[in-house]
């Protein structure tokens, strides 16, 4: 489960706009990758922070991706070269940001949470992705290498679709769309965990099942924290009259908004199902306990008259009837068997068995 609170003690007392890394360091060295393209040409290569300035004023579309946000000096240097607002530079290294969109005079700032489902543990992992849209430049900042943008890169490399003919706003749309589409994969992984667990709780619930229910509940709560603000972000981009998004691109954002609503509906369904799983577990355990108590109660009830008979003939009086009877012992056992059988037939007739 993701940590609910991130340590921010290092930022206490500092003036606004001071970049301080908040969060886990997930990569050793910061890596910068350049993709520059238009309809006719394309180039992709790694670059250093000192090489990014010439691409600020190009006529082509430039996508600069930064993997690693712990190096606040390099992040601040990139911010200076692209005239980023100090508050934006501060947020880039603070990985606990809520999904949001902020518009400044020279750039548009979007924060998203990129979700991945670990194949080893099955847990959902979240990573902050910051997207900045300037004149012809798109800057993306990620906590570590590896993302959900490979399909976007492939379309740029092979000139598939309209991405090479469109501007940087369409690239930002494509990146947001890739993040949202990946949420469907995460939901499918959650569904693969929820359905078998539901069957397990009905047939053979164990304390380990209840522990897994609580883990899934925490993951769904974290997903809700990501998705509800994202809904506001996409809606704001779609409905705004921002100078950074053309009308034609805002039509595509409407499709992203629809996908966001679908994911939210799915997560809300899982939330309701998981919330009912705790009650289902308690009911299943209670039913099993009732079955056990029912069997034990029937056994105890059967032995009450048998114990009475055995107790009567266990008294050591000298002049008791049948003590000298040769067939007394087997006769008493037969009476006990008849009493027990009659009680069982009576219980079955009443529907207690």
Characterization of this structure:
- This protein is of the alpha+beta class.
- It folds into 2 domains: 12-283, CorA soluble domain-like (Beta Polymerase, domain 2); 289-350, Magnesium transport protein CorA, transmembrane region (Methane Monooxygenase Hydroxylase, Chain G, domain 1), CATH 1.20.58.
- 52% of the residues lie in helices and 14% in strands.
- The chain is built from 7 helices and 7 strands; from the N terminus they run E-E-E-H-H-E-E-E-E-H-H-H-H-H.
- It has helices at residues 72-81, 86-93, 150-158, 168-203, 207-239, 247-312, 328-350; strands at residues 31-37, 42-47, 61-67, 100-103, 108-117, 124-133, 137-142.
- It has a 7-stranded mixed β-sheet with strand order 2-1-3-7-6-5-4.
- The longest helix has 66 residues, at 247-312.
- The relative contact order is 0.09.
- The model is unreliable at 1-5 (pLDDT under 50).
In short:
The protein has 353 residues and is α+β, with helices and mostly antiparallel strands. It has helices at residues 72-81, 86-93, 150-158, 168-203, 207-239, 247-312, 328-350, and strands at 31-37, 42-47, 61-67, 100-103, 108-117, 124-133, 137-142.
């Amino acid at each position: 489960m993701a940590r609910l609170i991130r340590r921010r003690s290092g930022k206490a007392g500092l003036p606004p706009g001071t970049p301080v890394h908040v969060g886990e360091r997930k990569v050793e060295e910061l890596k910068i990758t350049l993709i520059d393209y238009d309809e006719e040409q394309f180039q992709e290569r790694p670059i250093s922070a000192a090489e990014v300035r010439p691409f600020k004023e190009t006529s082509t579309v430039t996508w600069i991706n930064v993997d690693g946000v712990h190096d606040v000096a390099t992040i601040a240097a990139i911010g200076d070269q692209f005239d980023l607002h100090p508050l934006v530079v501060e947020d880039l290294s603070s990985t606990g940001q809520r999904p949001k969109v902020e518009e400044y005079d020279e750039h548009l700032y979007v924060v998203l949470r990129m979700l991945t489902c670990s194949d080893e543990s099955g847990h959902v992992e979240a990573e902050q992705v910051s997207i900045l849209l300037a004149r012809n430049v798109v800057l993306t900042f990620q906590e570590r290498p590896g993302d959900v943008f490979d399909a976007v890169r492939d379309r740029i490399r092979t000139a598939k679709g309209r991405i090479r003919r469109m501007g940087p706003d369409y690239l930002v749309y494509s990146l947001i769309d890739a993040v949202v589409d990946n949420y469907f994969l995460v939901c499918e992984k959650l569904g693969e965990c929820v359905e078998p667990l539901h069957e397990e709780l009905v047939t053979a619930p164990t304390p380990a099942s209840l522990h897994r229910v609580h883990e899934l509940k925490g993951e769904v709560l974290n997903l809700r924290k990501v998705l509800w603000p994202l809904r506001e972000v996409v809606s704001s981009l779609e409905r705004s009259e921002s100078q950074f998004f053309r009308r034609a691109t805002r039509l595509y954002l409407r499709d992203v908004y629809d996908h966001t609503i679908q994911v939210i509906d799915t997560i809300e369904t899982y939330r309701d199902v998981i919330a009912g799983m705790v009650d289902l577990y308690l009911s299943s355990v209670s039913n099993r306990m009732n079955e056990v108590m029912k069997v034990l109660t029937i056994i105890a009830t059967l032995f009450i008259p048998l114990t009475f008979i055995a107790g009567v003939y266990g008294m050591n009086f000298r002049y008791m009837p049948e003590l000298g009877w040769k067939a007394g012992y087997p006769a008493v056992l037969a009476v006990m068997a008849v009493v027990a059988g009659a009680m069982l037939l009576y219980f079955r007739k009443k529907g207690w068995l």
